[in-house]
Amino acid sequence: MEEIIRKTLLYKSGVEYADYSLNHAEGCSHGCTYPCYAMMIKKRSGVIKDYTDWKKPKIVSNALELLDKEIPKYKSKIKYVYLSFATDPFMYKVPEVTEISLKIIKRLNQDNIKVVSITKGIYPKDLTDKKNYGSQNEYGITLVSLSEQFKNRFEPFASPIKERIASLKYLHNRGMKTWVSIEPYPTPNVIKQDIEKILEAVSFADKIVFGKWNYNYMIGNYADQKTFYNEMAYKVITFCNKKKIDIHIKKGTIDLEFLKEQALPHKQTYYKTLLSYNAV
Ligand code: SF4
């Protein structure tokens, strides 16, 4: 696997629910076609040539040395480190990436720094070893559909859905904190599906993050998208409240202004519920 050297690793993220973050690989073998926002940025800035280039990740070979230097500098400011925004720490069937991700998590946890991770890959069972990995960590997966056909189209080289859920559940069953990102959620012109079935499949998780799909013309083509995302957010909130699961609805998913214009019989309850979870 190709390697690169970086000058810095840890950085303060500007993303709404993140604190510090790091990307210890350049590119991602999962090759999502939503498209991948990180790939678009890297392409625009000339770091990668194209999609083929993006799918061949390069490891940051000096990531652990950089962490040794940077942890003392940032430790007092860090609430947690998010892995990762511009790559996937547990790329499916890429053991080199998994190996370095485990070392990074262990190194951060040694200094009592919590790690929050997200993957479309498979979590290694090693993470349940409490001698090496802190119990404060939070492990998440992205899951926007239960359909393997959908996955093959939009997350072609990511892990199969059932395996992904099973690996998260394994961590949950051994006392780890888990979360699920249902984002970018597709509109019915892309796939007709029941969000409650997805929620049921991951109802063991401690937290659900829900968000609309951006950067794709198919979503823009769906005329009723504002109504649709308000309704889906309402379903997620109602489900999570019933199951006592924490919720985060991503910025721009709920459209309260649009809801005000709609004549709905149950508008008051609907409005109040969405208002209380609207990230602005
Ligand atoms: S898993 Fe994440 S980083 Fe990797 S291609 Fe998909 S969206 Fe991009």
Topology, element by element:
Elements: E1 3-4, E2 11-12, E3 20-21, E4 25-26, H1 37-44, H2 51-54, E5 58-60, H3 63-74, E6 80-83, H4 95-110, E7 114-119, E8 138-142, H5 148-154, H6 161-173, E9 177-185, H7 195-201, E10 207-212, H8 217-220, H9 225-243, E11 246-249, H10 256-261, H11 267-277
Parallel strand pairs: 1-5, 3-6, 6-7, 7-8, 8-9, 9-10, 10-11
Antiparallel strand pairs: 2-3, 4-5
Bound molecules: iron/sulfur cluster.
Iron/sulfur cluster binds at residues 28, 30-32, 36, 38-39, 87-88, 120.
N-end to C-end Cα span:
41 Å
Distinct bound molecules: iron/sulfur cluster
* Share of helix, binned: 25-40%
Count the strands?
Answer: 11
Summed over residues and divided by their number, the pLDDT gives a mean of: 93
Strand content: 15-25%
Described by strand count, sense and barrel closure, the largest sheet is:
8 strands, mixed
Approximate shape: globular
Counting DSSP H or I runs of 4 or more residues, the number of helices is 11
